Amino acid sequence: MVHVAPFSRVSRGRSLLAGAAVGLLGVAAGALPADASGREAAGAGGDRLVVTVRHAGRADGTYLLRCHPGGGTHPDPGEACAVLERRTTWGRDPFAPVPPDALCTMRYGGPATARVTGTWAGRPVDASYDRRDGCEIARWDALVPLLPAQGGKPLPR
Fold it and tell me: Which pLDDT score, from 0 to 100, does residue 36 have?
């Protein structure tokens, strides 16, 4: 028979003190400001992405997207967050690159490029996009309106 002794008052007090310290660090981390690029200081939580678009015409620029609740400088935060929610499923990265062994059409979709950095679903994001072939075009188009539609209406400024 194994007997497990209950926590003593000292160890219970230390556990409560440690828990309170961790809780205070969490509150402080949530209050950290974003730097000039829109990236938040280390330790900040939540769904926050910086989207930088180049060579896409009037949609060029850098946008901050916040989800839960939606906001930021992105022109359509509600729909951008919704497309990410739909693409986020267990065991699948919504920002995953095209697999190296994928067979792609040699269709060129234009010079537009994008980079998405930040945090989504508690995980760091650093993804690059272009439209150099059919697979990359499909990957880009799957994230519209997070990324601007090409050949269609540009993101408003």
Answer: 39
